[in-house]
Amino acid sequence: MSKQTLSFQAEVAQLLHLVTHSLYSNQEIFLRELISNASDACDKLRFEALNNNALYEDAPDLQVRVTFDQAAKTLTITDTGIGMSQQEAIDHLGTIAKSGTKDFMGKLSGDQKQDAQLIGQFGVGFYSGFIVADKITVESRRAGLPASEGVRWVSGGTGDFEVEAITRAERGTSIILHLRDDAEEYLNAWKLKSVIAKYSDHISLPILMEKEEWKDGELITPGDEAGGRQPGGMVKTGEWETINKASALWTRPKKDVTEEQYTEFYKAISHDHEAPLTWAHNRVEGNTEYTQLLYIPAKAPFDLWNRDKKAGVKLYVKRVFIMDDAEALMPTYLRFVKGVIDSADLPLNVSRELLQESRDVRAIREGSTKRVLSMLEDLAKHDKHDVAAAGSDGAADAVTDVVDADDKAKEGKYTAFYAEFGSVLKEGLGEDFGNRERLAKLLRFASTTSDAVTVGFADYKARMKEGQEAIYYITADTLAAAKNSPQLEVFKKKGIEVLLMTDRVDEWALNYLQDFDGTPLQSVAKGAVDLGKLQDEAEKKAAEEAAETFAPVLAKLKEALKDKADDVRVTTRLVDSPACLVVQDDGMSNQLARLLKQAGQQAPQSKPVLEVNAEHALVKKLDGSVHFHDLAHILFDQALLAEGGLPEDPAAYVRRVNALLV
Ligand code: ADP
Fold first, then answer.
1. Residue 134's closest CA among 174, 178, 94?
2. Distance 260 CA to ligand 1 centre (A)
3. Tens digits of residue pLDDT in 298-354
4. What are the structural domains, with CATH classification, of the chain?
């Protein structure tokens, strides 16, 4: 292959521009990204070599070497991993293969600070080298290829890059950064060592640096030379030493890992710039043995809504990295969980297909799911809101008022978690029948007594009125629409709390939950209103009488609206409004039907029931009115408008209203 100049894919060029312009405030992450790539390359070699031992080429050591040259102003990161062929260098370093790149680019706002955070999540990886370098040279050879098939890739990080064939004896990759003037501090062993300790201590393969000595012959190890003497007065010794712990973090005993190390490990595997909300680190013994280190992030990633998105749990088998996105290890509704599972039982050559079938994997998945749920339960228990609302089913726990520092740190975290991931968690109701009850306890909603999304079913139950037999809820597009829905009027009048559900998945998720802890869930927009014991005898009688005297008008209404309404009846649920729409008990709610329609799906055609308030002035006017037909239609269309719907023929509605106004 002779030397050629190629252009970056448009997205790469755009990304590079962002990297160099937005990320300079956090320069040092480039080292984390490049060491992480080096470590991935070694993992890949180890994995491929399981079936082809020759790939080691009689040099079995997997390691990363970090060197620098003060005169040339270069910093070099060399690994003995899988390396790249010529074509791979072109493909991998010139394009972004990741799906969702477009989505990602679309999310960028132009606000540097915000974008820098997003880029962090996306993982700029290799391109982060351009934060500190104005030119990068990559020299590589893929394991197993002859020395003559090495490749050199050079770019200044703008529009294009050059590639040419080189001869390279050792397999693996060297990333040579030609540092910018403002990044010369990385030409210093002490600086490099401290950055590596901060970000890369958990990397399980050795990171090596060359020992240096003062020109007068005194030997020092990298990192020790900060005291007083000028760097530059040193020479390399040719001796190498490992500067990280080089043991996978999750294999260390809990007590030997600091909070900061857990946090940095999380940031490294998740590309998140924020600390996680919480984590759990356990060795599970029994029929299947494995180690789990699972994190719950504080912020949702930009592609949380993509259900096909790769899962966040990495699978290792006896410390050998197997795969990144092992969806078999975590149910889809917990796709926000990040972490590592290291199995002692699975075969090293386990494939995705095998994973789906393995009993061990099923046990791991169940165990990990339960672990995540108990982490969430723990956060929920310590949430300030729940502590305040003690007296619900948390009453037993509330007797001990000893709150240790740890517990204090958990306050408010569940509400924060729920704001980010609550909607995803709800998917679990339809996905994970075995844990449905635990999940139901973790759900939170707004209600007629709380605008904040903090009311759990248990809180609600604890506040239920004497004689109340159901948990009432309403679904709507927005909190305002839910709160002002005419269907709530009688509940407000009687002081009965109603849960306000405004999340798109609520309607669907609630299909899977008929009751909570023995109390049925009842939509206030479904079926005839039945307040059971909450309605007193006098009210019941008055309603029956009203229905009777109103019967002839009802019959006329039914006739006038026969194309729109399945039925028309008198209701006691309304106080201030003249009418509202409800669906039959077994029907699909209007809200869900609208959502389906918006999503371009066929919603089954079912007509709603019009319920009228016989006490309302407008309804009283109906009897004998010359405008009966128009009034009937206006009543219906207004009921539709009130719940956020749109009359089928808006123009006709306007015409009718105007005719009356004139
Ligand atoms: P990511 O690592 O997230 O895939 P990067 O931009 O960091 O994205 O790297 C792009 C690709 O370049 C990698 O997926 C890998 O195939 C290749 N690559 C990067 N660094 C190395 C390396 N040190 N050795 C081998 N391949 C590498």
1. 178
2. 27
3. 988 776 666 666 668 988 888 877 877 677 899 999 999 999 999 988 887 777 778
4. 4-217+231-242 (3.30.565.10), 249-426 (3.30.230.80), 437-531 (3.40.50.11260), 534-661 (1.20.120.790)
